[in-house]
């Protein structure tokens, strides 16, 4: 437990059971001129980016973290002006110094804020009228940001910015955004230099805008108040609510976009699109003109219904106890204990249905289409899950092991299921239930302090590689048994450097499989402030490792993105194997996610997957484009996702709907690869 305090004089007392080996971190935050920086904050993070604790600076600038376990940390500071820096005088987590706290030590970490300048200016309309109450953001290429707001006369000032280059974003109350000077995207925006002790003036004039307004009526033709209205263009979304007459209005919409208008109730039980459309893909598009108002009226569509029954896939007998959750044209859910569900007053359109049951039936995903004025019938066919039961013992003595933890992975994938670990009872027995029929591998982590090592359950004993693990077939409603026998543990340790220049890498994760950044010792460990890692709980087998560190592509030992080609390190019981690594930075994969009209889609996330293993090997995103690092040469497939207000628009490159159908892309070992992606809006 970490206890944070406002200052040493008002420290919160640690519990009586506090760790006696824990220490403390304290210090004083001061300005570049040496004055205390009060009413700010310090945040403590592990070098693996896990949050540890938060403290405020008092009027003397002092902060304190008490009861801190020994380890390596990084400290983030924020001032009352929202100025942020990392110890010592660094602008990002990646660049921050690692602070090493020894057991029981009282470590002092003082921090001096870097000198600052400011940006100020005025935002007006094309006729000279002020734009009041717009938010203003100064954006630096790295991690430095500053914030302000325009007053009633359009004036703003961002008082504390570190020296450097910034771009200025204006966002109006309705959601409209632009960048100085008169640009729609961050990439096209001008750059402004802040100098310590000086004020940089950035005035701007709002781009041409128009409005969308209208009325929304109930099914009888009367006004429908309190309806949420969502107006979505290529790069922005604005909101409004209908008044007592059913009227709404959204101002400050860019004249360069066509807009889709969605209506929903406050609880999202129904959703429809103008005019009279059930889904975003069919919605009409509305342009706006400079200073003009586009009228978009609509009326609530007639409702439909859904009648649901369920049966067992093997016996055909009714299933009585289950729940169905609907998301799509609305959001509704019902549960039953008599086998029947009846949804009434459903908005017409398509839904994605998901189920839950009290027994061992597997969750089901069921598509549903509801028509106005009709009742749709749906039969859900439930499949009983299977179970893997393990008896975990000490290989040398045959003694059953309590508190050993078992997890399962689809055979050959090396990636554990998201339901995590199931740990053995006093008899050494544990079960992993509700598994879909198919082949699995089993991973076992020995009890802490036992001196025994982890393993993938092999055909004869353990193995360190999921590729050679035993395939365990699970059938519906049946139980498969395994008897893992754990061998003595050994250790892999090493130092992590960049292949580009050989610099030490002092944060990140070394793990047995990707997609877990916890560094909690279950599947991996953190890289410490000296660039070292140690995993001391591995069985005596050959193990591949995956490295996830800042500013480098995710890669397996041997510098590959393909787990099947990874270099393996032999672990010997009771001994330490050394695997030092120089990680490759990777190839830059970059581009823009655009809608069908060619406009960038804000907030798009882009994910790269190895085309052979299906594992994620890179990710990126941004306001107007994406950038990610992928180690090459490697065959990948790419997916883009954009939040659309009710879910995500998901597209696989190049315009295919699944991983299997997606285009395979070869990423070379050097240079930059540009791939623009079309992800249609709605």
UniProtKB/TrEMBL annotation:
The keyword Cytoplasm appears for this protein: no
Q: Where are the transmembrane segments?
A: none
Q: Which GO terms describe its biological process?
A: carbohydrate metabolic process
Q: Which GO terms describe its molecular function?
A: alpha-amylase activity; carbohydrate binding
What is the E.C. number?
Answer: 3.2.1.1
InterPro entries hit by this protein: Carb-bd-like_fold (IPR013784), Ig-like_fold (IPR013783), SDr/BOS_complex (IPR051417)
Tell me the superkingdom of the source: Bacteria
The protein depicted here goes by the name: alpha-amylase
